[in-house]
Design a protein that fits this description.
Layout (H helix, E strand, L loop, with lengths): L4 E4 L5 H12 L3 E5 L4 H15 L3 E4 L6 H15 L4 E4 L14 H29 L2 E6 L12 H21 L4 E8 L5 H14 L3 H9 L11 H11 L11 E4 L7
Parallel strand pairs: 1-2, 1-4, 2-3, 4-5, 5-6, 6-7
Helix pairs in contact: 1-2, 1-8, 3-4, 4-5, 6-7
The protein binds nicotinamide-adenine-dinucleotide (NAD).
InterPro entries: 3-OHbutyrate_DH, NAD(P)-bd_dom_sf, Sc_DH/Rdtase_CS, SDR, SDR_fam
Keywords: Oxidoreductase
GO molecular function, one term: 3-hydroxybutyrate dehydrogenase activity
């Protein structure tokens, strides 16, 4: 993977940050993206670059806006060169019963969790096809494979991104480009910390019981998935060794979907 150019969306924390670190450690030049404190993000980029010896740049593009996604992909190619690897990882969540689910949250979740991937892939494919090599990995979720209450937009978007993964995989397979999804179980990141609080409100349960009943209860391993394990799975799917793996949705879920 040395000298591959990668864009990892939603990489200022959690799974995305672990993935950016992992790809850089394997020799990739990386564009990070996401929200957060600019000084902290700059420090993280400098740290990754110092450890890996690769080029690390950052875009603050808001992926709910298609024009911003396109601009980010243009900046990535300008800064790094043609993009070989796209990891569509940015994600947001909102928890509410469907009859109370705000319309604007539905639109936001579909835009960030699903449509942004359409736009990054659309922007990246021409150069990948020209070079005859490409890796696209979409961070879906176990909720791309099974349903759950109070998360209609998230479940719909994550099922959608697995569909997009298959459609892209088939369309570009003969050009040396693969497209896969990873489906994490519960990974303790800011997105989950917020959900534990929201679920506690919706269900009326204390937060420690929500963690056990709603999140850990579904995973036979009985432990949260470390972000590094998801990053390792993504990095494998980006490697040459995974050249024949395409159109898949790989659970990294402690057995959640084995039930
Ligand atoms: P996180 O909150 O740590 O990271 C989310 C990232 O997305 C952050 O960098 C954030 O700044 C970025 N982001 C949010 N909205 C954005 C926008 N409009 N434009 C650009 N960036 C934006 O969460 P995480 O758990 O690391 O989530 C990463 C992905 O993994 C998401 O797609 C999430 O749905 C998925 N996932 C997480 C879990 C889990 O248990 N944490 C489980 C399954 C799937």
């Amino acid at each position: 993977m040395r000298n591959r150019n990668a864009v990892v969306t939603g990489s200022t924390s959690g799974i995305g940050l672990a993935t950016a670190r992992e790809l850089a450690s394997r020799g990739c030049h990386v564009m990070l993206n996401g929200f957060g404190d600019r000084a902290e993000i700059d420090a993280v980029c400098a740290d990754i670059a110092a450890r890996s010896g690769t080029t690390v740049v950052y875009s603050d593009a808001d992926l709910s806006r298609p024009d911003a996604v396109r601009a980010m992909m243009g900046q990535a190619a300008e800064a790094l060169g043609p993009i070989d690897i796209v990891v569509n990882n940015a994600g947001v969540q909102h928890v509410a019963a469907l009859h109370e689910f705000p319309d604007d949250k539905w639109d936001l979740l579909l835009a960030v969790n699903l449509s942004a991937a359409f736009h990054t892939i659309k922007a990246a494919l021409p150069a990948m096809r020209e070079r005859g090599w490409g890796r696209i990995v979409n961070t879906a979720s176990v909720l791309g494979m099974v349903g759950a209450p109070h998360k209609p937009a998230y479940v719909a978007a994550k099922h959608g991104i697995i569909g997009l993964t298959k459609a892209v995989a088939i369309e570009v397979a003969e050009h040396g480009i693969t497209c896969n999804a990873v489906c994490p179980g519960t990974v303790l990141t800011p997105i989950i910390e917020k959900q534990i609080a929201q679920q506690a409100q919706v269900t009326g349960l204390p937060e420690d019981q929500v963690l056990k009943a709603v999140f850990l209860g579904k995973m036979p391993t009985g432990r949260l998935v470390p972000p590094d394990e998801v990053a390792a799975a993504i990095a494998f799917l980006c490697s040459d060794a995974a050249g024949s793996i395409t159109g898949t949705a790989l659970p990294v879920d402690g057995g959640y979907t084995a039930h």
